[in-house]
């Protein structure tokens, strides 16, 4: 997690994890379409917003701050987003999409009920890869509005459903596994993991989330088995 050369107090995202900073638009005439220009501008604005919220908190960032950090005009901002909430929601949607996609790929390639540490690490490592983004959307966005909370619930519910389905598939082959665990059990596990990760992100002394894995793995492994 590196600081911005513009402001050493504002940490930079990790390039290529959730966002990738595009090159600045060329001066003068260029061959880019309007859609291509907007894609570049939206990415720069979402990155600026994410970095600012990670540094200052959800309620301390305004359009003027995002415009200044992205080195863009207010006109360009409002060509990309209706308002600050629109920018925030787009950035949060990116976080959720990448996180769920990363976890789902790992889950579906993993023997879920027998490789619990791998499942937990897939989540923690996705957050660990970019702690700036993780702190913004995992921690600061607890103060966001209903739309963001609904998006979070949908994402966590989807992950819980994938876990349940994979567990039931494996329970057909392993009699030690409990095949009748409801989705609510897996959802509780997902929420517990999320809350522990959020608490760790809120602790400035914690730099590696992966220390959460061993005790969680032991608890979840026992919870998936009969009796």
Automatic annotation (TrEMBL):
InterPro entries, sorted: Homeodomain-like_sf, HTH_TetR
DNA-binding stretch(es), residue numbering of this chain: 62-81
Coiled-coil regions, chain positions: none
All residue ranges annotated as the HTH tetR-type domain in the record: 39-99
Transmembrane segments: none
DNA-binding recorded as keyword: yes
Organism domain of life: Bacteria
Record keywords: DNA-binding
Gene Ontology MF terms: DNA binding
Descriptive protein name: HTH tetR-type domain-containing protein
């Amino acid at each position: 997690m590196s600081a911005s050369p513009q402001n050493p107090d504002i940490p930079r995202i990790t390039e290529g994890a959730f966002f990738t900073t595009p090159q600045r638009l060329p001066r003068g005439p260029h061959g880019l379409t309007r859609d291509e220009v907007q894609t570049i501008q939206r990415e720069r604005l979402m990155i600026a917003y994410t970095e600012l919220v990670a540094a200052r908190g959800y309620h301390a960032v305004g359009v003027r701050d995002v415009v200044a950090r992205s080195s863009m005009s207010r006109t360009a901002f409002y060509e990309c987003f209706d308002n600050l909430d629109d920018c925030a929601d787009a950035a949060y949607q990116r976080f959720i999409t990448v996180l769920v996609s990363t976890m789902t790929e790992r889950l579906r390639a993993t023997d879920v009920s027998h490789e619990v540490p791998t499942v937990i690490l897939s989540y923690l490592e996705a957050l660990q890869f970019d702690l700036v983004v993780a702190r913004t959307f995992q921690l600061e966005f607890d103060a966001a509005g209903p739309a963001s909370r609904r998006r979070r619930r949908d994402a966590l519910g989807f992950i819980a459903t994938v876990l349940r389905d994979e567990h039931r598939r494996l329970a057909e082959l392993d009699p030690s596994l409990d095949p009748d665990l409801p989705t609510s059990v897996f959802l509780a596990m997902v929420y517990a993991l999320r809350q522990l990760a959020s608490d760790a992100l809120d602790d400035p002394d914690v730099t590696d989330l992966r220390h959460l894995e061993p005790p969680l793995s032991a608890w979840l492994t026992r919870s998936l088995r009969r009796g």
